[in-house]
Automatic annotation (TrEMBL):
Belongs to the complex I NdhN subunit family. GO terms for cellular component: plasma membrane-derived thylakoid membrane. It comes from Stanieria cyanosphaera (strain ATCC 29371 / PCC 7437). It catalyses: a plastoquinone + NADH + (n+1) H(+)(in) = a plastoquinol + NAD(+) + n H(+)(out); a plastoquinone + NADPH + (n+1) H(+)(in) = a plastoquinol + NADP(+) + n H(+)(out). It is an enzyme of class 7 (translocase). This is NAD(P)H-quinone oxidoreductase subunit N. The lineage of its organism: Bacteria, Bacillati, Cyanobacteriota, Cyanophyceae, Pleurocapsales.
Length: 158
């Protein structure tokens, strides 16, 4: 990898396929440079970890209910004894509503993507087709240099 990279080929590949599978050096650092290039090109990025996401469609695109840990305190009465349900806004669609007019779109940069199931990866492949302003960059593993390929090709190989 060159010391100074423009990231244009990465941005072109992301715009063409909509979802990329990334292989990044394990010592880190290089992904930050590519995220800066994305922001300079007009995209907004959200960093997420794949651990604990749950239902991707609900978490990213719909209002959904969560129950925080009850820590020994349970509700008594008409409701379930496991605690109150709190409704939280969807991460991706809320950010899309708040994007400035001159923005190209939103990039979901998801770390630790190797723990996702095949069905969840298929959803991430189809997400840019459902909402064209969303792009997905999914970190799938380690490599000696920053490498990427369309996410659909990584699914075929798995």
């Amino acid at each position: 990898m060159a010391l100074i990279t423009t990231g244009k080929s990465f941005i072109r590949a992301l715009e063409k396929s909509g979802a990329l599978g990334l292989y990044v050096p394990l010592e880190g650092g290089s992904e930050g440079r590519y995220q800066r290039r994305l922001r300079a090109a007009g995209y907004h990025t959200i960093n997420l970890s794949a651990r604990g996401l749950g239902d991707l469609d609900a978490y990213l695109m719909r209002v959904h209910g969560v129950r925080p840990p009850h820590l020994g305190k349970k509700t008594i009465g008409q409701e379930a004894a496991v605690g109150h349900i709190y409704y939280v806004p969807p991460v991706a669609s809320y950010q899309l509503e708040e994007l400035p007019d001159n923005s190209k779109g939103l990039v979901l940069w998801i770390m630790e993507g190797n723990i996702l199931s095949r069905q969840e990866i298929e959803y991430l492949i189809n997400l840019p087709k459902i909402e064209p302003r969303i792009k997905v960059a999914l970190e799938l593993g380690g490599e000696r240099y920053f490498n990427w390929k369309p996410l659909s090709e990584t699914l075929i190989a798995a």
